[in-house]
Amino acid sequence: MSPQPPIRSTASPPARPDASMSLLTNVMDHSLDEGYVEAAARRDAEEGGLPRTLRAKLGLAAGLVLAAMVVTVGAAQARISAPVVAKEREELIDRINDETSAADALEDTIEKLRGEVGERQRAALRSLGGDQGARVALVAGATAVHGPGVKLVVDDAKDTQSGGGGPRESSGFSDKGRVRDRDMQLVVNGLWESGAEAIAINGQRLTSLSAIRAAGDAILVDNRPLVPPYTVLAVGDGKKLSTTFEKSADGQYLHSLQESFGIRTSISDQEEVRLPAAPSLIVRTAEPQAADAGKGNGQGTADTGKGTS
Predict the structure, then answer these.
(1) pTM: predicted TM-score of the whole model, two decimal places
(2) What is the DSSP letter of 223?
(3) CB 216 within 8 A of CB 129
(4) Could you give the CA distance from residue 129 to residue 147 in angstroms, rounded to a whole number?
(5) How far is it, in rounded angstroms, from Cα 228 to Cα 173?
(6) 226: three-class secondary structure by DSSP
(7) pLDDT at 15
């Protein structure tokens, strides 16, 4: 019995698990198109075949060199322009000093001329039988004065900031701990009523034409802004003036501001206070009184247009 030939299997090889996803498999196996592969090969051949890491290092080095050049050029230009800036600064300082000196000289001239005008006014009054020039100048604030008096300091409450609300907000001030123009008006009027002969706030002499107003959160005296603390100097009998003011209604009002809103105040007697003259005075008309009306006593009338603050 002849042996049977071996049985060869004619079955096909087992199918791949991803056989049903042949398109995706082809895309994954050949992610780069042949044209792109050829272009990349030509580019590498043209660049000399340098490795990418070396090219990156060379590019970084070139960038650093360029940045260093920019910094060096900038430093050189700054060094060149520094003397020019210094020279311009010195010229500006010299101009400021010159203008300051000129302003001081003009102030000295104004004081000298004011003294001459006052002397001529007194001479004219003496020729008419009286000399009230000094008294008129004192009342009008035309001359600087000094003598015993009081020093009253009024300041905002601690940690005062704008933007808050409160019962004192209605007059234009957003913080109840701020000193308002109305407060300073009452203080000044209280000092006048208590016997003050002359008053100045932060070096600003007050006259019968002076006005204390507000602009935002700032207090203006004769249109000049002041900053706290507000130092009020008043000439008069120091002890009597301070006692009378503290007992007055305006002094009690100031005390209530301190108790209710934390506004800081202090008053002290001074052996001598010095007040400057008012910066500008305007006399609109001044006419001598008729001889029959004045009875020859040299008294005259003057309409200075003054009002009360």
Answers:
(1) 0.51
(2) T
(3) no
(4) 29
(5) 14
(6) strand
(7) 59
pLDDT digits (tens, 9 = 90+) for 236-249: 988 899 999 999 99
Q: Of the ranges 131-135, 155-159, 171-175, which one carries the lowest mean pLDDT score?
A: 171-175
Identity of residue 68: A
**Given the structure tokens 């601690």, which residue do they identify?**
158
Whether residue 178 contacts residue 260, with contact meaning beta carbons closer than 8 Å, is answered with no
Q: Higher confidence at residue 245 or residue 168? A: 245
Report the C-alpha gap between 288 and 157 in whole angstroms.
51
Identity of residue 24: L
Residue 208, judged by CB atoms within 10 A of its CB (0-12, 13-18, 19+), counts as: middle
**Structure confidence at residue 44 as a pLDDT band (50, 70, 90):** low
Evaluate if residue 161 carries a pLDDT over 70. Answer: no
DSSP-assigned letters across all residues of 107-120: HHHHHHHHHHHHHH
Tokens in use for 139? 């009342």
Answer whether 55's CB lies under 8 Å from 44's CB: no
What 3-state DSSP class applies to 101?
helix
> Could you identify the residue written with the tokens 């120091």?
238
Distance of CA 138 to the CA centre of its chain: 35
Query: Do you find a cis peptide bond into 229, omega within 30 degrees of 0?
Result: yes
* Average pLDDT of the chain to the nearest whole number: 76
Rg (CA), the chain: 46
Q: Please answer whether residues 227 and 282 qualify as being in contact, where contact means their C-beta atoms are separated by less than 8 angstroms.
A: no
Residue recorded with tokens 């430093």: 75
Query: Given the structure tokens 């096909």, which residue do they identify?
Result: 12
Say how far apart CA 53 and CA 60 lie, in whole Å.
Answer: 11
Give the C-alpha separation, 98 to 75, whole Å: 34
Q: Which of 116-125, 149-158, 273-282 has the highest mean pLDDT?
A: 149-158
Residues 176-195: b if buried by 16+ CB within 10 A, e if exposed: bbbbbbbbbbbbbbbbbebe
Report the candidate in 221, 212, 217 with the shortest Cα–Cα distance to residue 176: 217
Mean pLDDT of 216-224: 86
